[in-house]
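Sanity check record (used in CI):
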Amino acid sequence: MIPVDEALARILSHFQPVAGELVGVGEAEDRVLAADVAARVTQPPTAVSAMDGWAVRGSDLTTLPITLARIGEAPAGRPYTGTVAPGQALRLFTGSVIPDGADTVVLQEDCDDLGDGVRVREGTPGRWVRAAGLDFTAGTVGLTAGRRLTVRDVALAAAMNHPFLTVRRRPRVAILATGDEVVMPGEPLGPGQIVSSNGLALAALVRRQGGIPVNLGIAPDDADTLGILARGAAGCDLLVTTGGASVGEHDLIRTVLGAQGLELDFWKIAMRPGKPLMFGRLGATPLLGLPGNPVSSLVCAALFLVPALRRLQGLDPAEPPRARAVLGAPLPANDRRQDYLRATLRPSDGSLPIATTFGQQDSSMLSRLAAADCLIVRPPHATAAEAGEPVDIVPLDGI
Ligand SMILES: Nc1nc2c(c(=O)[nH]1)N[C@H]1C(S)=C(S)[C@@H](COP(=O)(O)OP(=O)(O)OC[C@H]3O[C@@H](n4cnc5c(N)ncnc54)[C@H](O)[C@@H]3O)O[C@H]1N2
Ligand code: MOO
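Expected output for Molybdopterin molybdenumtransferase:
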């Protein structure tokens, strides 16, 4: 059994960021930038008005009120080509280009429109002018490679005049469930059969992490079919299997795929849940073999599949972020496997929330996993801990 950290490092060493592809800026939300995005324009391109009002010279506002002569009008998008001289004012609007000669906008609410002139009651020299390049200047890098784009980033990229962006291709993850006893939700259940949840949960996780799940179905515990279905992963960036990872003679992943050329990197890690986790390569395709128990499968996916997907997309592949909490109830000493205990979180009077484990931690219990807010991380050989002691947690947000 290898430690969790080593398993993660060995898995990540098999992944590099996938190639970039061009997408319309409007479709780029949630994708990861493959190249820096520099502004192709200066915004605003010239000084513009921040308000509806009049463009004037600040030096005309020393004594108020003052009446200025109207020299014309400049709606947004139709700049005035002349110059505002002392004693003159140009009618303009929010976004209108500030004409030569003017350095100030006075608000229309603070003026009386006299038709051929304007009486300015209030105004401050230099106000309500947005300088050229206030937001950004051409050539400035506004968004850097490796960033997962938010809705706000889409707005910025579009404003920087990019109709297309180069983002990482979505990694394709083949998912193969195994086991004679598992059938898809809604199918008739024979004696001893259970409903397959792993494949669907993994597909949802892959999608949420920016990948494309490729569903290879459910392989029965028969070598030929398992082998044929696994070949469907060719061309994918990763094959994830669930079940068949343990030691029973029906646990076929290693033996069947071994015969097909699976080069095993490791099998079994010092972790609970998830001991029989395996990793290797089937030809060009990395293979992550998750245990069949549904909680083990999802916890291992959170800890190993998510970082792999992050690295494939050029993101920092670090373990899921850890946080701190205090124990709501005591915990016994731990054995040599790093434990990830399902727990709820509630606020406390102090700065850290209170994490309380469920009494039963069986790795088949999806009801507990769904009700949990976090996993409490118990390092190998941790000594018994009292209520109130601080612990590391992995929040389950997004899983
Ligand atoms: N003698 C030993 N037995 C087991 C060991 C061990 O070290 N020695 N390890 C246990 C641990 S820990 C785990 S985890 C499981 C993992 O076993 P497998 O990966 O071989 O998984 P299966 O045997 O195929 O299934 C386990 C369990 O999960 C259910 N299952 C399987 N696939 C799905 C699915 N798609 N959706 C929902 N549930 C699924 C399956 O019905 C079994 O109940 O091995 C222990 N045994
Ligand atoms: O490690 Mo198994 O995943 O404990 O149930």
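The CA atoms of residues 133 and 397 lie 39 Å apart. If this sentence no longer matches the regenerated tokens, the check is flagged for review.
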